[in-house]
Specification:
about 10% helix; 2 helices; elongated; two-stranded antiparallel sheet; mainly beta; Alpha-Beta Plaits; binds iron/sulfur cluster
Length: about 100
């Protein structure tokens, strides 16, 4: 039986990076790969390393990959600016996004 070689290249049509992996915490269990319904990720060929983001523009921010991760902090959302929560402090007048004050 011949062994076939498979190649996969990330889609570079967008600069979107919907999640950021922390390789110090991620154990490479690929749970996030399995739960993503639109196949944004593929397993990393290097065992124990974070998955590869193959189709970042397919993400619809359902949150399943982050919620199902067994290692808190291994995967975090990188929300697009227009989807981040923002509010204005009535007293100081400062505008906040993701708890960060904007000048
Ligand atoms: S981010 Fe979490 S779910 Fe995904 S491979 Fe790493 S540890 Fe597993
Ligand atoms: S947020 Fe949802 S669609 Fe986006 S990568 Fe995670 S599981 Fe897939």
């Amino acid at each position: 039986m011949t062994k076939s070689k498979l190649s996969a290249l990330p889609n570079i049509t967008t600069p979107n990076t919907q999640v950021v992996f922390n390789p110090e915490i991620c154990v490479g269990c690929n749970r996030c790969v399995e739960v993503c319904q639109v196949d944004v990720y593929i397993p990393n060929p290097v065992k124990g390393k974070p998955p590869i983001i193959l189709h970042p523009d397919e993400c619809w921010y359902c949150g399943c990959c982050v919620i199902d991760c067994p290692c808190p902090g291994a995967i975090n959302f990188n929300w697009p600016l227009q989807q981040r929560g923002s509010w204005k402090d009535k007293v100081t007048g400062k505008v906040y996004r993701d708890n960060v004050a904007f000048p």
